[in-house]
Design brief:
Length: 343
């Protein structure tokens, strides 16, 4: 193993994108966002050529600079990507765009919400046009893909389903899907934690959470995830966040829970518009670990079945021996798959 990074074969350009649609967002989060663009070696050696592009998005709590985080004995994600496009047996050269959609609740699910901001519009209507204008992309949906893990995998699925005018291929690594399996199990633990320590109030917990090191209490993970998802899926037009369960008992509130389910990619994939979007894709990649703590392997299988029922291109599908974390080594597999089909 290399003990530290080595010079890239390609280039990683770092920008700050000044977003109009994120100005004045409900959480007061920055509207100027870091945006990274990886250019494969062929971008410089073949100046007359245009390239497909893939948008790489992150899981819950992800911020762009976290892509450089190094785990013991493992390369970083940018290093994996540079090896994929610049090493032996290189994949078809592709532009990779690293997009930041972090919020102070941890994430945006890459959709528009009055509870967090217009992050779907930011990705689809601002960033893509800016990249196509500034780089030699093939500026057509058939040559543009989106890929991510966990909430990023969710973003890849839901944006491909809702914006087929933008994407021709998707890759999801353990993406949030089949909501009754991946989210509902958290509602009872969340209700209990709120009752025991915070008087049943998410707002009281959030104030406490921000006053100390994050995740220093056992219930922090389940509470931040549940609250962030409610902000994305069930915020009212005025930004008020509606929970899908009674915080005193954990009992489902059917009308609010239905609002969540309307965002479930498995269910969206079964709608008329979802079926049409899936049939238009050139590439669908789905994987997950068989020991995923959030049971996202089950959601992966449900989404695969929905794709097949829609008559889509046959998805690449694999369940592998892993949990939810430390699966960054899967990213190059999906990126190669997309690059070969979007070129």
């Amino acid at each position: 193993m290399k003990p530290w990074s080595t010079p890239f074969r390609g280039r990683l350009e770092e920008h700050v994108f000044e977003s109009a649609v994120l100005r004045g967002n409900p959480l007061g989060d920055p509207s100027d966002r870091p945006l990274w663009v990886y250019l494969p070696p062929a971008y410089d050696t073949e100046p007359g050529r245009r390239f497909p592009s893939i948008y790489l998005i992150q899981g819950m709590t992800g911020q762009v600079d976290m892509w450089r985080n190094r785990s013991a004995f493992r390369p970083t994600v940018p290093e994996l990507i540079d090896e994929l496009f610049g090493g032996a047996g290189a994949a078809p050269p592709t532009i990779i765009v690293f997009v930041d959609c972090w919020t102070s609740y941890g994430g945006s699910q890459f959709i528009d919400s009055p509870g967090t901001g217009r992050y779907g519009s930011y990705l689809n209507d601002e960033v893509i046009d800016w990249v196509d204008a500034g780089y030699r992309t093939v500026a057509e949906p058939a040559h543009r893909g989106i890929s991510g893990k966990s909430s990023g995998g969710y973003g890849a699925m839901i944006n491909s389903l809702h914006r087929p005018d933008r994407f021709g291929g998707l890759a999801t690594h353990a993406g949030d899907a089949l909501f009754e399996v991946c989210y509902q199990a958290d509602f009872a633990p969340a209700a209990r934690a709120l009752r025991n320590d915070f008087g049943g109030s998410f707002e009281r917990w959030l104030t406490d959470f921000r006053s100390r090191p994050a995740f220093s209490k056992a219930a922090d993970e389940v509470l931040i995830n549940t609250y962030a998802m409610a902000a994305c899926y069930s915020a009212d037009p005025d930004g008020a966040i509606q929970l899908p369960f009674d915080p005193a008992t954990g009992e489902l509130i059917p009308a609010t829970w239905a609002r969540w389910l309307a965002w479930d990619p498995v269910r969206v994939a079964r709608t008329e518009s979802g079926v049409a979007a899936l049939r238009g894709l050139r590439a669908i990649y789905i994987d997950a670990g068989t020991r995923d703590e959030y049971h996202l392997d089950l959601g992966a299988e449900a989404f695969r079945q929905a794709c097949l029922a829609a008559g889509s291109v046959t998805p690449f599908f694999e369940l592998f021996d892993a949990r939810h974390g430390a699966i960054e080594y899967r990213y190059p597999i999906a990126l190669r798959y997309l690059a070969e089909r979007l070129s």
